[in-house]
Design brief:
The chain is mainly alpha-helical. The chain has a domain at 15-76. The chain contains three helices and no strands.
Amino acid sequence: MSTQQRTRLALLPLLPVGLTALVVLGFFAIGEAAGHGAGPAWLMVVVVAFLVGMPLLILGLAVAGAVQRHDLIRAFIPHPGETIPGAGQ
């Protein structure tokens, strides 16, 4: 395992902690804005949706890309012991 992979795995537990902190702060900000009326509350909802939604979207796209790359690698590389059609001709 490379140093880069070890670093990623070491930082992985911080991801849910950071996302949870973003969500808690977002709900706190919406609650504070709701005290000033419906207009500021809706504006804060939109701002928080982007601030929390964008990191979640980026994380989701990264996971989807990793799954797709894993599936492509498995589709092109046969399993050990499997014969390759057309090899040796």
